[in-house]
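Hi R.,

Here's the chain you asked about this morning:
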Amino acid sequence: MNEAKRSGGGFVACAPDQSRSLSEQLILAGDIRDAIDHHEFTLHYQLKVAMKDGRVIGVEALVR
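And the predicted structure, written out as tokens:
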């Protein structure tokens, strides 16, 4: 979509390798949905620590 907007013509041709990339993305999205349905992800919290003084300045939530 962004490429089509940049070209000004409202459309852009897709190369075969781009289509493959899209199909791989769709497969990955399906795999992620399946993993969620089967409770295969776990949530982990990781502290963000200031190197200067060792103080906790935040936290990140990671899904694995």
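The mean pLDDT is 85.

Let me know if you need anything else.
M.
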